[in-house]
């Protein structure tokens, strides 16, 4: 089953051709990071306009790279939410038009389900499993008994972990996106600032990063008042140590409480080298699967992978009108 997938939930314009949910024939991604760097973050209106400019180009490149035509496509899948509404609409309109023009079934896919199934492209999911979704917009613990069965055990009550990384990066004067650079600088510093570990409650699965972000801001403010210099490497190391203590403690506890066979880490922050190192040294008795770097950030291949299992579970739509932005209950 060959699926043409479209992803445009934020600032990456991506089209992929995926076979049977596993074999990626092509995965073209055009990022807008260089554009949004000028603003210190993603500007929704600008993102939408660039999706419009890039979409047909990415469609053509993906089909050419996979060496297929519309006659070889069995299903069109598109991210229908969550995400930036303007960006989502560009992808939905493009996918709907392509499906309608070539009389191909169309399916809407939840963006977070896509992140989960990004790990299944190169690995085999073993159930029951515990997934931790860590990205710029979400931080969630999701229990899965089987394919397409999701139970959210905990989520962030305020800022997502990736959002906190980028905002702390801005406080430190680092260029956007701050997350990858904080991860890099953290390896050059030491945990010297004694930042809090928010909601490190042994009985709960929810997250909170707003207070940690405020704690960093307070340290910087008082240092400036005293004429002191912040050691950026040490602050990055201190911030990352706090984040990793919380993330790894929560996923370790949830995995053991639910006696899962596997831990799955997905989302943009899954590319964080510090997180990968901490998981490998802390959790020894449960298999951990993490997508390769190419599939951590937003891409259409993950939507194609998720669409295959969504189709097996629910079937495709019989028209070209999607239901709008999906809720987080999958």
Short description:
Helix content is 44%, strand content 18%.
- Rounded to the nearest angstrom, the distance between the terminal CA atoms is 23 Å
Biggest sheet character: 5 strands, mixed
Give the CA-based shape: globular
Coarse structural class: alpha/beta
Extended strand count? 10
The CATH class of the largest domain is Alpha Beta
Query: According to CATH, what is the topology of the largest domain?
Result: Nucleotidyltransferase, domain 5
How is this structure best described in words?
The chain has 330 residues and is an alpha/beta fold. The protein has eleven helices and ten strands. It folds into two domains: 2-116 and 296-314, 2-Layer Sandwich (Nucleotidyltransferase, domain 5); 126-290, ATPase, nucleotide binding domain (Nucleotidyltransferase, domain 5, 2-Layer Sandwich), CATH 3.30.420. The chain has helices spanning 33-36, 44-66, 85-102, 111-118, 161-171, 178-186, 210-226, 232-257, 273-282, 293-296, 300-314, and strands spanning 2-7, 12-19, 23-31, 75-81, 106-110, 129-134, 139-144, 151-155, 262-266, 287-289. The chain has a five-stranded mixed sheet with strand order 3-2-1-4-5, sandwiched between helices. Strands 8-7-6-9-10 form a five-stranded mixed sheet, sandwiched between helices. A hairpin with a 4-residue loop joins β1 (2-7) and β2. The model is unreliable at 320-330 (pLDDT under 50).
């Amino acid at each position: 089953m060959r699926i043409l997938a479209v992803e445009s939930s934020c600032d990456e314009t991506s089209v992929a051709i995926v076979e049977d949910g596993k074999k990626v024939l092509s995965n073209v991604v055009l990022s807008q990071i260089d554009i949004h760097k000028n603003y210190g973050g993603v500007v929704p209106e600008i993102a939408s306009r660039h999706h419009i400019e890039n979409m047909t180009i990415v469609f053509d490149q993906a089909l050419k790279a996979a060496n297929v035509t519309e006659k070889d496509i069995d299903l069109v899948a598109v991210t229908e939410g969550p995400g930036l509404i303007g960006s989502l609409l560009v992808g939905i309109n493009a996918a709907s038009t392509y499906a309608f023009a070539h009389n191909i079934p169309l399916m809407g896919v939840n963006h977070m389900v896509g992140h989960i199934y990004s790990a299944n492209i190169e690995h085999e999911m073993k159930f029951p499993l515990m997934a931790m979704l860590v990205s710029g917009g979400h931080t969630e613990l999701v229990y899965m008994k089987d394919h397409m069965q999701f139970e959210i055990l905990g989520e962030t009550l305020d800022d997502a972990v990736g959002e906190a990384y980028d905002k702390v990066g801005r406080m430190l004067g680092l260029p956007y996106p701050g997350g990858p650079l904080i991860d890099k600088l953290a390896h050059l510093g030491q945990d010297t600032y004694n930042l809090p570990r928010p909601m490190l409650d042994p009985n709960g699965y929810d997250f909170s990063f707003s207070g940690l972000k405020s704690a960093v801001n307070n340290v910087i403010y008082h240092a400036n008042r005293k004429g002191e210099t912040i050691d950026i490497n040490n602050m990055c190391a201190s911030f990352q140590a706090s984040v990793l203590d919380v993330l790894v403690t929560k996923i370790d506890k949830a995995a053991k409480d639910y006696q899962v066979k596997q831990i799955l880490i997905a989302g943009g922050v899954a590319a964080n080298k510090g997180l990968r190192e901490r998981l490998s040294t802390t959790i020894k008795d449960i298999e951990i699967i993490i997508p390769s770097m190419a599939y951590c950030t937003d891409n259409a291949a993950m939507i194609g992978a998720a669409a295959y299992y969504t189709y097996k579970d629910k079937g495709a739509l019989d028209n070209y009108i999607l239901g709008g932005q999906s809720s987080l209950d999958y």
